[in-house]
Automatic annotation (TrEMBL):
It catalyses: 5-(methylsulfanyl)-alpha-D-ribose 1-phosphate = 5-(methylsulfanyl)-D-ribulose 1-phosphate. The record marks 180 as: Transition state stabilizer. This is Methylthioribose-1-phosphate isomerase. GO terms for biological process: L-methionine salvage from methylthioadenosine. The gene is MRI1. Catalyzes the interconversion of methylthioribose-1-phosphate (MTR-1-P) into methylthioribulose-1-phosphate (MTRu-1-P). It comes from Phanerochaete carnosa (strain HHB-10118-sp).
Length: 388
């Protein structure tokens, strides 16, 4: 795992720790993930979140579980034969896959490990060699993320600068808006849409980043705010309801967002509120850019109507989590955490989808580590074959 300051996952040998994102930004606490069950629980409860980060954790948890067994003085019975290994590992992969339904990266990671397992069994290798291949593949899923994030960030930023240059604007004046959190905390490092923004900043082309609070989990106000502050990127937070006002009163060069799943036609599931921002961006003629790794593109899903959308527990939309203000600290100097209810108790109904789908029609460009896809003139869908 590359060291980039802020990080969602850190590993030392077989030890995996994740930063508890429920406590950020007021308390930075790492939690050890020493079992498959803990990895599943951390993903489900959103102690770790962000499509690439949850895939990395699932892959690393499997790698660590197998490494420990390979190194154990007495090998477990399931390492005695390829069939026994398969019977043990496949249910773990199937179980991890069920932790969250929308981000396809999680199923891409578990499918990749399933393929390694099946190929190993078919090749006639012994159980220990197959387990070693799975360890290597699990680590690779995590390792690959940072370099591909840098690549898609560079490609997306260069494409945007070309578009801006065509409109005759000065590149140094760029202001971008983003939704949710797509930085180092949501990935294995650098980020996707926030990576693009970071790249513009690093190359002196960014004036300011705007980001929505992204309620109800507040990925924007808690996590993106924290990342932008630590990267010293000039930035401004806005409430989700203020996007239209922002576009009316500020010169926004583009909206850049991440994705949890991009369907074959380019329809994109991302944090709820992304669709609202895309409708408003179209109304204001602002380019709307999706930045995501190839593993987020799901060619088997025909369009957005087929993407499973996770519904989060009602209570999560009724609560706000944070630190007591004015800040009170406990004996260890940690800001005291509080969870506050902002609705009456026992509401009759709560609508709480975690994601929405932005139709391809509203998306200007889809950027992966392989390139930038735009729609053909007059088309309402993407041909993604050049970027997967
Ligand atoms: O519910 P979350 O916080 O996991 O949702 C995260 C998002 O919607 C991100 O935009 C997406 O996963 C891309 S992260 C690089």
């Amino acid at each position: 795992m590359a060291s980039l300051g802020l990080t969602s996952i850190r590993t030392t040998g077989t030890k995996i720790e994740i930063v508890n994102q429920l406590l950020l930004p007021h308390s930075v606490q790492f939690v050890e993930i020493d079992s498959i069950e803990k990895a599943h629980d951390a993903i489900k409860r959103m102690i770790i979140r962000g499509a690439p980060a949850i895939a990395s954790l699932a892959a690393l948890a499997v790698a660590s579980h197998l490494s420990l067994a390979l190194d154990a003085p007495a090998a477990p019975e399931w390492l005695s034969s390829p069939a026994a290994l398969q019977d043990h590992v496949q249910p773990l992969l199937d179980y991890l896959y069920t932790a969250r339904p929308t981000a396809v990266n999680l199923s891409a990671a578990t499918r990749r490990l399933t393929s390694t397992l099946q190929a190993g069994v078919a090749s006639g290798k012994d159980a220990r060699s197959i387990a070693q291949s799975l360890v290597a593949e699990g680590k690779a899923i995590d390792d690959e993320d940072v370099s591909r994030n840098r690549e898609m960030s560079r490609r997306g930023a260069e494409w945007l600068l070309e578009q801006v240059a065509k409109k005759g604007k000065l590149p140094a004046e760029l202001q971008l808006m983003t939704v949710c959190n797509t930085g180092s905390l949501a990935t294995s490092g650098y980020g996707t849409a926030l990576g693009l923004i970071t790249h513009l900043h690093e190359t002196g082309k960014l004036k300011r980043a705007f980001y929505t609070q992204s309620t109800p989990y507040h990925q924007g106000s808690r996590l993106t705010a924290f990342e932008l502050q630590s990267l010293k990127i000039p930035s401004t937070m806005l409430c989700d309801s203020m996007v239209g006002s922002l576009f009316q009163h500020h010169d926004i060069a583009a909206v850049a967002v991440g994705a949890d799943r991009v369907a074959r036609n380019g329809d994109t599931a991302n944090k709820v509120g992304t669709y609202n921002a895309a409708v408003l961006a179209a109304r204001h003629g602002i380019p709307f850019i999706v930045v995501a790794p190839v593993s987020t593109v799901d060619l088997e899903t025909e369009d957005g109507s087929k993407i499973p959308i996770e519904q989060r527990p009602a209570l999560e939309a009724c609560l706000v989590r944070g630190a007591l203000y004015p800040f009170a600290t406990d004996e260890g100097g940690v800001k005291q955490q509080a969870t506050v209810m902002v609705t009456p108790d026992n509401l009759d109904g709560v609508y709480n989808p975690s994601f929405d789908v932005t139709p391809a029609e509203l998306i200007t460009a889809i950027v992966t580590e392989k390139g930038v896809a735009v729609k053909a003139d007059g088309a309402t869908r993407f041909d993604l074959s050049s970027v997967v």
